[in-house]
Amino acid sequence: MEIKIVRGSETQSYNVELEKVTLLTLLNHIKTKIDPTLTYSQGCRSGVCGSCAVRVNGREQLMCEYKPSDGDTVEPIRNARVIRDLVVDSGMVEHFTRAANAWSEGSHEGNVSEEDAARIETQSDCILCTSCYSACPVYAVNPDFIGPYALTRVWRYVNDTREESSAAKIAAVQTNGIWDCTLCGECVPVCPQNIAPKQDITMLRMKSAMMGYNDPNAAAAFGGGLDFGGSFF
Amino acid sequence: MAKVLIIGSGGAGLVSALAAREAGAEVIVASKTLPTRSQTSMAQGGMNAVLGGDDTVLQHIEDTLKSSGGLGDEARIAFLCENGPEAVAWCNGIGLPFSRNGEGEIARRRLGGASAPRACYAQDYTGLKLLHTLFDQCLKAGITFYNERFLLNLIKDEEANRVLGATFLDIARGEVEEIRADAVILATGGYGALYGKHSTNSVQASGDGLAAAVRAGAKLADMEFIQFHPTALKNSSILISESARGAGGYLVDGSGERFTDELAPRDVVARSIHDEIAKSGAVYLDIRHLGEAFIDHELPQERKLAKIYEGIDPVSELIPIKPAAHYSMGGIEVNEGCMSSVNGLFAVGECANHKTHGANRLGGNSLLELVVFGRHAGAKAAEYGNKSPAYPCENPQCVKDSNFIRGVMYFTNQIDFYQKQEMLANIFYNNVGLVRDDMGLKAVLGAIRQMQKELPFMGPRDKSKICNTNLVEFIEFGNKIELAEIIVVSAISRVESRGAHYRIDAPERNDRMFGAHTITWKEDGVLCADFIR
After folding, report:
1. ipTM of this model?
2. In this structure, what CATH number is given to the domain that contains residue B277?
C-alpha cells in the first residue's frame, strides 16, 4: 500500500505491505523499519490521549483509529504552526482553555440525578485532540476565535447542575467566542468522540441571551438606528 | 515563596501541582508531552472510596492489605483508605463528572478483590475525565506548564545529598536547559512500556523519572512487581477494563467454558488465563449476555476498540484476550511524606512506591492513590521548599547533558535500537512476565548487559536538531535498559512467589527470607540490592 505524507513543503511516499492495521501502526512500522526521521505524536493507541490527530485526504482523523487505504495522503492538522512533519505547536489547547475560563468555579456536593449527569456526559468525553480546531474555517479570518473545543468545554461546565457560578465563563466567551462562530458545523463530523461543538455553541448563545447578553452581529444587522428599548416615548 | 518543580503532568503531577499552589508555592509543571495526553487518560475502572452502604473503611483497608501480599504498609494503606471519601468529595468539588446511580449518589462498581462495590466512576472514562478536570483547575490556578520537555537528569548537590532542579531536552528546539527549584516532585509514571507490544500502557511509560532518580542516587523499591492485567486485546494489548468483568462478563476457554473466578485479584486471574492459554491456546472475554444497551452505555470504549483492533463486535462475538503488563507496583522508595532518599526529591503516583499496593495493586486504588498522595506530596514539597530553600550551587549537570545530546549524534548506529527494544519487550514478556524462573531471568540479564555494552553502537539515525523523536526514543530506550537490569536483578534475588512475582522454581511465599522490600540503588554506577523490612 502506498501512503503519502506531507513533510513541510515536500510530500513523501512510502510503500508498506501491512494489512488491516491502523494508520498509527503503519507509521510506527515506517519509523522503526524504514525512515526514523518521520516525525509524529502518539500516546495511548486507544483513542483517549488525543495526541495523534492528523488530516487524511483532507479530513481530520485519529491515527490510532483510522484504517488507511492505498493512496491516502496524510498531513498535519490546520490552523497550527507545524514544528516538524505531522507535529504541530499545540499551545492553542492551553491558550483557548484559559481564554474561555473553561473550568469549574466550584461544584456543589449532593445528589445529582442520572438525567442531570447525562447532560454533560458527551461534552466531558472530549480528549482535546484539536480535530475540531483544525476543521474550523473561522480561524482563516479570526485567529483569536476561542473555537469549538474550548466552547464545548465552557458549555460542559455551564450545563453542569453542580456548578456554582457560570457568570465569568459566559462573560469570557462573548468576545471572539460564541458570536464569531458561523454555525457551519464543520467541527461536528470530525469529532472522534461524537461531540457536536456547534450545538454546544448554540446552547451557549441561548444561555447568554437569557443572561442579558446580545448578539453583536444582530445589533449591527439592524444598523443600530432604532432603539426600542430606549427613552423613545 | 517556595518554587516547586513537578516533572510529569498526569493525574499525580496535576494533583500535586494544585496542592503545592494551594500551599502558597510557585509551581512549574514540566512534561515530555501535553498534560491531557498523559497515561492517566487511559484509566477506566474507577476510584475506590467507601461512601456508605454496607461497605466500611476497615474492609477497604483489609482488601488492600490482603492483596498486597505482605508488602503493604498498614499505616499508609489506612491513610489511603481513610482519605478515600474526602478524595472523592474533592474531585466532585472541582467538577469531575461522576456517573450516578438511581438515587443520584455517585455510582460505584465492584472491581476484583474488593469485598463491596466501591469504585466511583465516570462511565469507562474515569481517568480521562479526572485528568481533564485537573488540567482545567491548573489553568485556573495559574500554574505554569513547560510542555514537551524531556527529563534528562536531576541536578544534585552530592555533598548535601540535595536535589536542586533538573535538566531537560526541549524537544521542539533541540536545546538542553535546566530548571532550578526548592523542591522537585517526580510524577513521571510507570515503566510498563518496557514490555512494548505486550503492555496496555502508553508508549510514553518508559520510566524516565525512575531512571533519572536512580542515577541521582535515589533508592527504588520492589521493582520486580509488575501487574499484568488479565484482559488486554490479544493482538494489540489494548486494555479491556476490569469493569467488563465487574459488570458480569465471563472468561471462557476455546470451547466456551468458564474456568476461573473472574473477580479474584488480578494476579490470580492473570495467571489462570496464562495457564489456560498455555493449555488450550486461547481465552476469550464474553460480555454478550450484558446486552447492547448496557455495553453502549457502560463500556463504549471497549466496543469501539475491539472493533478497530480485533475486528469483532463484543455485542455478538467473543473478545480474544491475553494478560498484558499494566501497572508498575515498584517505584522510587518514599517515606510517609512522599520524599525519596535524596533530600528535596519527592515522588508520587505510579513512579513512586508508596507501599500501598505491595505485591499486587487492587483495581481502583491507583487513581485514589494519586489524589490522596498527590495532595500530600504537593503540600509536603511546598513545606520543604519553604523550610530549606535551594541555594546557588555550581553544577556541571546541564553542561554534561548538553554534551551528551551533541555526542549521541556520533554514536555509530551499526545496531538498530528499535530492533533491540522489540527484543527486550519479547524476552521480558516471556521470561520476566507472569511466570518466572532463575534460568530464564538470568538469560534476560545477560541480554540486558550485552545491550548496555552495545548502546554506543546504536544511537539515533535522525540527526535533526528540531523535534527529533528518534533521539527521544533512543534516550527512552536507554532508560528502559537501565531499569530492566534493576527489575531482573530484583526478580532473581526474590526466590519465592508473592503477588505479581511468581517463580515457578519457588512457588511458595517465604516470609522468613523475603517478607521484606527489595531495595535497589546505584553506588558509583554499581547496582546494589538488599531486602529491608
Report:
1. 0.95
2. 3.90.700.10
